[in-house]
Amino acid sequence: MTPEERKQQRKVRQQQRRKQQRGKLLRTVLGIALPAACLVLVLIFLLPRIELPGSTKPTGEVTEETTVIHLAAAGDLNVNEAVVNAGGAGRDYTKALMDVAHLFADADVSMLNFEGNFYGAPYGSDRSAPQELAQALAAAGVDYLQLANSFSIYKGMDGLRTTIDAVRLAGMTPLGVYGTYQQAQEGKGYTLCNIRGVKIAFVAFTKGMDGMALPPGNEGCVNLLYTDYSTDYRKVDTKGISRVLEAAAKEQPDLTVALVHWGSEFNDNISDTQTQIAKLMQSKGVDAIIGTHSHYVQKIEFDRSTGQFIAYSLGDFMSDAQRAGSEYSIILNLEITKNNLTGETKITNYRYTPIFILNEADQPLRVVRIKEAMKAYEENYIDRISKESYDAMDYALKRIEARVNGK
Prior knowledge:
six-stranded mixed β-sheet; single chain; Purple Acid Phosphatase, chain A, domain 2; 2 domains
């Protein structure tokens, strides 16, 4: 069997595993406890007509003239005890992700920034997550995990390698990192995917790794934004960034998306070096820059004429939400349109869904859509949020809109 045949075989197995995982999640969401015959009838006759609150119709749209696809992105998933415990004793994260899973699954391609490791027990405070969390993310529809961030080498190069393996085992693709120097040289810092004829190049970079430096002999294993990445973050690695983007450009992608872990924590300011990096990336063909790390939602810039897009920070997707302002964030959805007659491809629109990390007393942590959770409270639904959470969400909606608009 040739390497290409083995690669294709692995891809088929991953696709089959993902379908099984998503099927399990869907059965749990529907909560069906009927005999097998009734279940079949429900799926055949009712499921095609079910539309979850806030869900969209299938996103991929292909006509003779255009192809339209959608990309979904969320912010930081910060591994800590509250996040690990959201799965309970059985490490089942279905309920924790249930309300937002369709935002990933409905998109043609989905991603988020994973700040932690898959390195085995102990879990939580030591930044290690159980494999079940990776499987739950894949089942929810997440395709790519950005691993270039503060915790890339928190457990050393061994931790990076086990994390890469765990992500792949779950059926997802890691971005911005490599297990060895040789793999980094072969991978060249970018990842390609083809969605209905739309070829996308993904790159991911981090400002640093919480003060840690790559061990000698592992250069290039993490894509970095600064040459002084373990100290001051003042010297932009222009050559390194350009090398990755120029290599990706040689593949002639229709669109290039950069995931960047940058800026300062719990800070709204956009630094001069961030502006420098954004201009450099755009000059090298990057169409969308999607930022994380500040733990706050930050401003979005979109040039409709060119299709160039920057979201400076999406905020925290899932964390313990202990710091004010980190409990709410957004899940982004980019509309990408390819003209099949001319080949021109660009971002033509975007939208976002405000979300909230619900961490109420005596309840496992879960991520919910703000507007839908508030409506459920107003209509007195079972399992509704508390009045305190309702008021916090009402405030969060206003703050999200202001932050997205740079106010």
